[in-house]
Records
---
Amino acid sequence: MSQVTVLGAWPSPYVYRVIWALKLKGVDYEYVEEDVLHNKSDRLLKYNPVHKKVPVLVHAGKPIAESAVILEYIEETWPQNPLLPKDPHQRALARFWIKFGEDKSAALFGFFMTEGEQQEKATKEGQEQLRILEEQGLGEKMFFGGDEIGMADLEFGWLAWWLDVMSEIAGVKVIDAESFPRLHAWIQRFKDISAIKEPLPDRSAMLTYFKGRRATFLALAKS
Amino acid sequence: MNPVHKKIPVLIHNGKPVCESLIIVQYIDEVWKDKAPLLPSDPYQRAQARFWADFIDKKLYDAGRKIWTTKGEEQEAAKKEYIEILKVLEELGDKPYFMGERLGFLDIALITFYSWFHAYETLGSFSIEAECPKLISWAKRCMQKESVSKSLADPKKLCEFLVEMKKRLGVE
């Protein structure tokens, strides 16, 4: 069997999309931790010279970068436990919401990078996007993928674990059961899946790490 | 048909909308799969096509916009950035089209920006062909196909459009 390697950084939700996809499909892989903030390895720079970021999937020596591109590759290479529907229109919808998640990430994460009045504004903007996501993306479905978890669920997986930590650190409540009932219910369902739950990073380690990140963002904003 | 973004393009097929241009192109490739495949069949090649299409979408539009909305040093920086992006794309291979012998997904992702080159060159006073001759010869190869040349916008009209936009936005 060809070697599968994931270059990642443990705090990054983007990396988990790839890990989850591989675990859901039962694909064995080797995980390699990269110090992306302070010391990018030659290997990372060789495998992702354009963006120099994680995640990178290396399969039989060939690298693929960008989590959305990697997910499509995983889906095509290991078709078991499909993460995309068969119907082209449904596939286009899944891809649409994945792109929505990427395009809106500045708005969605804004609350974490700001404080005071700016943070109030940023939180509202993020919640507006989450409202659209809840009503039009998720709707009445169990998962973004329908009855079963799919690629779009992995895209928004950060809402199920990272958002809570980031909200606590930033001192704002972005989602709760009353204001976003369907997203909240989806979060519980998503986290219950063992392939999702098992690799999740330790919460207290995340608190430490993201506290540091917020301090950095706020300092940068002031300078 | 596009309540989330309220943007074009939107493809409406059998009454159902598909939004976001590259997603639409993939949809077209999947529905009308028996003719002229746009993505390669090999998953790694497909990943390369998607990666570079994503790169184009992330970088090229904003970089181009900076050329006609700035002046002086800012504009010089914008021109340099634009050429750098095109040079990266130019290095992608020596085949007639990006992924091989036939025009495909990645060619489609980039060729639509070709119509804007003339406008940027005029407003930025520089020559893209001088810096990226391989890319321009690829573009001209694509333009030899009627499906491309008859559907792309007229570069002169685009230039006039940007001149008008500059006036309206007060960029001079």
---
Amino acid sequence: PAANEFGGSIEVSGITNFIDNGGNVLVAGSPSLDDPLRNLASECGLEFDEENTNVIDHVNFDHADTGRHTRVLVPSSNIVKSPLIAGAASKKPLLYKGIGMVLDPDNSLISSIVTGSSTTYSHDASESITEYPHAVGKSTVLVAALQGFNNARVVFTGSLDMFSDEFFSSPVQRGVAGSPRFDTAANAEFVTAVSQWVFKERGVLRYSDVQHHPAGTKESPGHYTVSDNVEYSIRIEELVDGQWKPFRSDGVQLEFQCIDPYVRTPLKGNKDGVFSTTFKLPDHYGVFKFLVDFRSLGYTFLVSTSPVTVNPLTHLMYERFILCAYPYYASCFSMMVGLVIFSVVYLFHREPKSKSE
Amino acid sequence: EMASVQSLTGVVTRFWDEYSVKTPQRLQLIDCYLAYIVLTGVIQFLYCCLVGTFPFNSFLSGFISCIGSFVLAVCLRVQSNPANKDQFKGITSQRAFGDFIFAHCVLHLVAMNFLG
């Protein structure tokens, strides 16, 4: 972290190109952070605090702290509740000693994994505070994760010490009297889980085998007609321990879009990871697409589009005799029948004799 | 008002008596036919008011068929009335009936086409 510039031919643009091409990066900072890592962080949408600042918490500090309260014991409730990213939930706190970060609020791809408590702030521990600190309270981010649209993952943390053996194995207890004591902090498990997530060993999805056809047949015609019943299925798999296993979730949705989604329906998955549903096409013709856009914290983004055309009804598909027009049909025919009867009676009619007299 | 109601019923009964005596039976026959057409037309129109004009072409076809038949039957009645013989010189009652039938053919042809 303290390097003035990266060694050899590595530059910030080189690393961002690496990320743009799908590479994953794990970055650890420290209070003696210098420009290269700062530039990399601002490219990714977060900002480290100034040099020589630390994350300070006068309530949640470890008993082994030297007095400045920079050895912060982060309660387990401040760790994001996603087993994919942070591992199994545990009551153990996290030991952190380092610099703080703030996230860009407009960036929708970056999220905080570990934040400070409401008593945390980020400042130079040796100076008195004369202006509002850079990061205060719960918006002090200790570990942040970015997942780009190309599914490249980057994790930033401000504490290199979080990865150290000392932090892995020391017993921890809050410096306030009467706090519970833990034999170890959660560092070892947390760091292992985060590294597995960032280097795409966990939380990776892929799709295959997209099929759609009219309900009841198996063939996929070249086009559909308005108000058809259509069955759609997609197979989604998840990488678990190096193997692709069927994915299980209740949150996968299908959208049937023609600029705006006309139909949005949930997909039901079976045990083989095949998600399918049957629905009725809207009463609108045009070029539509089946869109599956699954975004969930910790998983890679899954987007699948299949364009189809939907034709209007041909002339022969309308009903031949309209039920509510039957009275009009009846009146037309009754007029003709009436005419025939009338003409027959009229022609064979003879004036009664008494009238002409 | 008793007097006006009485006079109304008086007028109707007087009209009915004169009509049944003075009108030739032929014309009474046409009048029955006319009443039948009016009834059909009114029923159709009420149905359309209730249900709406969904297959508008069917409604128009049925209604025009009624109206056309009514008009042609009235023409036949006018031409067959012996009291109007002076106005229709040269048109025998057979000619009148022939015109009536021909016009009806055209009317029903058009109505069936428009019925859908």
